[in-house]
Every structure is written in structure tokens, then in C-alpha cells.
Amino acid sequence: MPAIDTITTEVIRSALAYASEEMGLAVRNAAYSPNIKERLDHSCALFDRRGRLVAQAEHIPVHLGSLPWGLRATLEALVQRSTVMQPGDMYVVNDPYVSGTHLNDVTVFRPIFSGDANRVHLGYAASKAHHTDVGGAVPGSMSATASELFAEGLILPPMRLMVDDRVNPDAIALLRANSRTPQARSGDLKAQIAGNVTGERRVLELVARYGEATFEAAVERILAESERRMRAQLRSFGEREVAVEDVLESPEGPLVPIRARVRTHDGTLSVDFSGTAAQLPFPMNAVYGVTLSAVHYVIRAATDHTIPMNEGCFRPVEVHAPSGSLVNPKRPAPVGGGNVETAQRLCDVMLRAFAALAPDRMPALSSGTMANVMCGGVNSAGEAWAFYETIGGGMGARPDADGIDGIQTNMTNTLNTPVEALERYFPVRVTRYEFADETGGDGRFRGGCGLVRGFALTDGQARVSLLAERQRVAPSGACGGGDGAPGKHTLLREGSRTALPAKTTLELFPGDEFVVQTPGGGGYGDPALRDASARRRDAANGLAASDGQP
Questions:
Q1: pLDDT digits over 426-441, tens only?
Q2: Mean of all residue pLDDT scores within the chain
Q3: How far apart are CA 489 and CA 436, in angstroms?
């Protein structure tokens, strides 16, 4: 392998990083559904020929952390079936036990071959996007009560989406036939194809400019440099070992523990989830790819965010999750909520660990839920519809600043669905969208406030599902700061108000109003040390009482 200079390496690294961002733009611009076009619930990345992550866009942490594991598992599945990848192929998969998240997240990847007569395999372009509906028991395909994977929707094993650069119509037809919104499904799938073709084009341009040998030498140096910098960061924590835990809220019954022992040693970090609850008969199980995502995300957040994100970052990291546990279930355990809610709790567990290792670096806990809302039905014209979104909450206060009000935190990095888009595409009216006053934890620095978002059905009949957390156990403050307020959810029907559990599915009729209030973030530091002018500002903005008392 030839020697390569620093400048050429950096040019290639930056080009690959931007190529993955450009892939995301292509997916967004071509997508049909508001969930991808408006909320940006998709992610893109590039891999080398060995399936090692080389570059990724700043998209969804839970997608991106699971893509490397999912790609390797998918390639192994194809080898077991004696499938030989050819130029012009593209593959699709959503099986969580292969692709690494949940059924709604459809992964599409393209093997990249050089354009010359030898057709050398160079790597892969991959995209993962949340498809709003892939069948199953409820609109949105994320049932709060599913007892097995098969109730959650269509399961796609790895299969060819394109052959010889032509779309496989059978693959498209299969996804369309199993969705309540077939036109959006095929449109979003073709958007992912566009994203991968964009990534392939940029890789081939780099290889044409620098040559295969130089390109591969640059990749090796990029990965090695990220590994070197990450090991240096991990050494800064010293020789430490901490044990931490947090809980999930079961629909009924006791709280469910997630326990971890985190050890730093000579530039390495190991995480052992032994002692975590066994897998559950409801859809809060997190496949191993999700567990890796949460661990890797918090390591990134707790170290140096300028380290280029690639496989080298995590060579010093080892994660043990017992088979058959909540954080590494066995098939066919249901996993729809593991990707969204358990992922957030895994983040909280890891944030607690790093708060013990370096309390001056870490914030209080954020809202700890994605507050997933899935709704769909048939309007009076007989047309089926479905939508999905996550709702932001309060960010935990930081060691030197307040938390942010009403924002997506940790494992999600999506936007809201704009009110105009939601009301244009669906028979829904947004009745409330505001900060939840006085929900951030008090402290020297205040936790961010949660959100209130209300929906009213305007036509036909629908079913709405809520999959949320932190209704029984509030996000905790740090270093003497107060806890954030827990979430609460309400149904308003014919003048009566009914409190709702955090995990539920119910029928909606025209005029019904469904209201979600997300948790606030924890506060940081002694409330007595909060600046008086900050309290007056909070009171003037309606976010907290001037004396710090709700």
C-alpha cells in the first residue's frame, strides 16, 4: 500500500463526509412521506469493501450506530445463502435481527464497484429510513402491545432491490402490498435508491481522481487516526470502574432495570450489561445494534466530537449484552419500542456512568423519551393514511448552561412535522403546540421544558398509538439540581378529560383531541446558586416561577 500524505488524506476524508451528507439531501429531496421529507427521519453512510464505516452524515444516532453492525450481519446472511453481489445490485432489508433497529427502519445498500473492466469491489453506500407504515396490527406499525415480532409488520430478509441497475419490481410490490400507504412506501424506497447512487457516484469520482491504491491508503489512515484520538480521550478518564442503572416503565407491573458496569483501562472502554432484565413480552426489547448505538453515541458525546466518526472510533470499545436480555433479545421478541424508547434509556444509563467518571463534563438527564405518536385510518373518501412523529422534550441542564426547551435529544435527531404539512396531508388539526411551563428541573442551571402537542381528528375514523416513557420516573437532576417533570398524556372527548398511560392504542373520532406532554430535563447544581436575573427571565417567558417553585 503506498504512503499517503496528510493533506491528501484530509481531502479524501472531507469528500467522503460530505458525500454522505449529499446522500441524505438526495433522499430528502426525492422522498414522498412527510416523515422523511419534513422530519428528516433517515440516515446515510459510506463503508469500505470490508464493511468498515468510513464516513457518515450527521443524521439519526440510533440509525447510524446500528448501520455498521447491520451491514455486517446482512453481508453474513447473504454469504450463508451463497448470494454473490454483482455490479448494478442494490439490496433491501428491515429484519431487526439482521439490520439492527426495528421494522419501520428500512435499510438499502449498494455495493460499489470500480467502473473499469476489472470491476473491483470498493465499498458500500447505505441508507436507513423510517417508513411510516410497514403493516402490522396498528397504523404506524409500532404497536404498544405486540407480543412478538410478527405482530409488528412486514419482515424483509436481505433481498435484491436492484439487478443490473434496474429496480426489482417484486421487491417494491412486496413492500407496497404490506403497507397502508403503498404510494409513499415505494416513493420513499426509490428516494433511498437515489441516495445510494449519489454516494456511489462520489466514491467513484474520488477513485478516478486519486486511484484505488491511494484511496484505500487514505481509508486506512483515516480509521487509524480516529482510533488514536479516541484512545487518547479514553485514557483521560484514568483506570476507573463504575456500576450504574436506570429503569424502563412496563405497561403494567414493576419497573424494568437496565444495569451496566463500565470500565476504562489503558485507552479502552468496556461495558457489561449483565444484570439487566430478561427480554420482555412487549415491544421494548432493543436488538444488539440499538444497544451498540446508544453506547457509541454517549462515548462520542462524552469525549471529543471533532474526532471523525468512523470504525476507528470504536475499536477500543467492547460491549457485552447477554443473549436473551432486554438489550440483546432472541428472535422473535418484539422490538418496535426498543429502537426508540429503550435506546433513550440506554443513553441515560451511559450518561450516568460518564457523570460518575467526569461529573464536570456531563449534563443532567434529558426527557428520556421520543414520545412516539402513530396515527392512521381511513377518511370519508375511503383513502387510507398514516403518520408518525416523535415529539421533543426538555434537554438536561449542562454544567455551564441551562438545558434547551422542547428539543429532540440523544438518540433522535429529527425535526417536528410542520403543522402546515401535517394538516395538508392528513385529516388532523393541531390544536396545541407550546412549551410545557415549569417542567424543567430547578438548579443553578435550569433543565429545559417539555412540549405540549395536541391533535384533533377532523374526518373519518382513526387509531392512534402512543409509545412513550418517563411518565412514572422523572428525568433526574445532577449535582444537586432538581428532577424534570414527568410526562402526562390526555384524551379530550365530548367535554370529558381522560388521563392516558404512556403506552396505549385507542380509537379516535372526529372532534376527539389527543394531547401529549413530554417530560422536562433535569436541573444542574444547587438551585440557591441560580442567578436572580435568570429566574426573572424564566418567569417573564412563562417557563418557571420567579422563586423557582412550580
A1: 999 999 999 999 999 9
A2: 95
A3: 12
Q: Mean per-residue pLDDT for 364-387? A: 95
Angle value at C-alpha 95, between 92 and 98, nearest 5 degrees: 90
Domain positions in the chain: 6-226, 363-550
Q: What are the residue ranges of helices labelled H in 38-179? A: 61-80, 96-99, 169-177
Rounded to 10 deg, the angle between the 6-30 and 182-210 helix axes is 160
In angstroms, the Cα distances linking 406 to 58, 402, 429, 466, 523 are: 20, 13, 20, 18, 15
Q: Residue 107: phi, psi to the nearest 5? A: -100, 135
> Which cell numbers hold the place of 256?
424494568
Mention every residue, 6+ apart, whose C-beta is less than 8 A from residue 323. 330
Percentage of the chain exceeding pLDDT 70? 99
Residue 208 confidence (pLDDT) above 90: yes
Q: Which residues contact 187 (CB under 8 A, 6 or more apart)?
A: 30, 31, 32, 33
3-state secondary structure of 347: helix
List, in order, residues 6 or more apart from 258 with CB less than 8 Å away: 245, 246, 247, 248, 273, 276, 277, 326, 327, 342, 345, 346, 349
Identify whether the C-beta of residue 436 lies closer than 8 Å to the C-beta of residue 451. yes
**Which residue type does 106 have?**
V
State the DSSP code for 325: B
- In sequence order, what are the beta bridge partners of 242? 262
13-34 burial by CB neighbour count: b if 16+ within 10 A, else e? bebbbebbebbbebbbebbbbb
CA distance 417 to 433: 11
- pLDDT, residue 119, reads 87
Q: What is the mean pLDDT of residues 194-210?
A: 97
User: What DSSP string describes 376-440?
Assistant: EEE-TTS-EEEEEE---BPPPPBTTBPPPSSB--TT----PPPHHHHHHHSSEEEEEEEE-TT-S
Residue 359 has pLDDT above 90, yes or no: no
Q: What is the pLDDT of residues 255-304, one digit of tens each?
A: 999 999 999 999 999 999 999 999 999 999 999 999 999 999 999 999 99
pLDDT of 546: 45
Radius of gyration of the chain (CA): 23
Alpha helices in 100-258 (DSSP H): 169-177, 182-210, 212-235
Query: Is 354:338 a contact under the CB 8 Å cutoff?
Result: no
The SS3 of residue 208 is: helix
Which 3 state secondary structure label does DSSP give 318? Answer: strand
412/61 Cα distance (integer angstroms) = 6
Q: What is the pTM assigned to this prediction?
A: 0.95
Cβ partners under 8 Å of residue 63, min gap 6: 42, 43, 101, 105, 128, 293
Return the exposure string of 442-473: e unless at least 16 CB atoms fall within 10 Å of the residue's CB, then b. Answer: bbbbbbbbbbbbbbbbebbebbbbbbbbbbeb
Q: Which residues of 285-309 are buried (b: 16+ CB within 10 A; e: fewer)?
A: bbbbbbbbbbbbbbbbbbbeeebbb
d(CA 199, CA 207): 13
Band of pLDDT at residue 117, cut at 50, 70 and 90: low
